[in-house]
Amino acid sequence: MSLTLSAPTAAATGLREGAFGNAVNLVCRECGTTRDLGPFYACAECFGPLEIGYEFGNVTREQIEAGPANIWRYKALLPVPDDIAESPNLEPGFTRLLDAKNLAAELGLKKLWVKDDSTNPTNSFKDRVVAIALSAATEFGSKVFACPSTGNLANAVAAAGARAGIRTVVFIPSNLETPKQVNSAIYTENLIAVDGNYDDVNKLASEIAGEEDGWAFVNVNVRPFYAEGSKTLGYEIAEQLGWRLPDQIVIPVASGSQLTKVHKAFGELVKLGLVEDKPYRVFGAQAEGCSPVSVAHKAGVDAIRPVKPNTIAKSLAIGNPADGIYVLDIARETNGAVEDVTDEEIRDAIVLLARTEGIFTETAGGTTVGVLKKLVETGQLDPELETVVINTGHGLKTLDAVTDRVGARTTIAPTYDAFVAAGIA
Ligand SMILES: *Cc1c(COP(=O)(O)O)cnc(C)c1O
Ligand SMILES: [Zn+2]
């Protein structure tokens, strides 16, 4: 019934020998059917999503530790060629894992780490996924590097494309925050604002990808490659913890790809013997104004009902999340949960993280930290267990979210008397 294709040869596919490293094929996540590596994203048998299959061989900690301080130290675990580090790219990854003692104390947690991905080249975790997609697009000989985006992805695609010297076209919902628009337009002359929400933009991108030759839409037709980039977050967390897995992890959910792949990464590390196997709990974070996965989790149902997003967490505003059902599975399997918070709670959490740890996060990070707080308060997360929370983006991109919360305490004359009178000391 299911058709199994043999592994590709460079000659058969026109691809460079070793173009995808240890990756050997594309595997359907629904029915397991495999096919040759290529710019494909849907199963020919059942239309299920495809993901990358590997034959890793022997990968050691020493080999990884000898690599560069960016995602390419994990190249043996990614669908990239061996010489990937020499290609023109933004070298994302290996971001800080901060021991968040103050926030932990504030929330009543014994041990909390913040994985701070706001320090990536374009200030969000999206630089990771885009780097892998760019490598794939290059190997496929694509002439346009494109994406539908809620903002951060467009920034990352436009910047990486500029550095690689490939034409970029990025599509965004027209109501996006000005800083996110400028952060794309500075790198590309092809920022296209679409009258509609992200799900409309995504549908348009799929249509263009089907009609136009040579367009690599990072999160559409090269999505299996793109998605693998999120695994590096999981690898880094484990390596930075001293080659072990955390007990609990809180991850934001837009399409659900990141959460799914961090879980995949932990599983691979166990399988390769790079970390010890142990139970860990995965928690997903959404904004109440776009919480289709959280709603399904709480209702205990398997189907995710698409919603029309209405939240300040625009980078998470995907009403019809492609990997939502896999997020549900993982949360249930690992004894985790998917939770959501209101826009007010998101704003509070942005300020909380800034005031406790000196980290300015965007609304997505406010969502994740807000959900962490709620999970503790509702007893869903065990305060005794070691927890990691991922900050995926930078607050300078969503300044508007907090401009009515913070600002100058007072304005005074430039005199010592005025300082004393203001009661600041
Ligand atoms: C894209 C994005 C996410 C989550 O993305 P997934 O689609 O779930 O992989 C989280 N945070 C930020 C800041 C993002 O831009
Ligand atoms: Zn299938």
Q: In words, what does this structure look like?
A:
With 425 residues, the protein is of the alpha/beta class. The protein has 3 domains: 1-87, no CATH class; 97-123 and 230-401, Rossmann fold (3-Layer(aba) Sandwich); 126-223, Rossmann fold, CATH 3.40.50.1100. It contains 15 helices and 13 strands. It has helices spanning 10-13, 61-65, 101-107, 126-139, 152-164, 178-185, 198-211, 223-228, 231-240, 257-271, 292-299, 324-333, 343-357, 363-377, 416-421, and strands spanning 23-28, 34-35, 50-54, 97-99, 112-116, 144-148, 167-173, 191-194, 215-217, 248-252, 281-287, 337-341, 387-391. The protein has a 6-stranded mixed β-sheet, sandwiched between helices. The chain has a 4-stranded parallel β-sheet with strand order 8-7-6-9, with helices on both faces. It has a 3-stranded antiparallel β-sheet with strand order 2-1-3. The longest helix is centred in the middle third of the chain and has 15 residues, at 257-271. Mean pLDDT is 95; it is low at 1-12. Bound molecules: pyridoxal-5'-phosphate and zinc ion (ZN). Pyridoxal-5'-phosphate is lined by residues 124, 126, 152, 252-258, 315-316, 362, 364, 392-393.
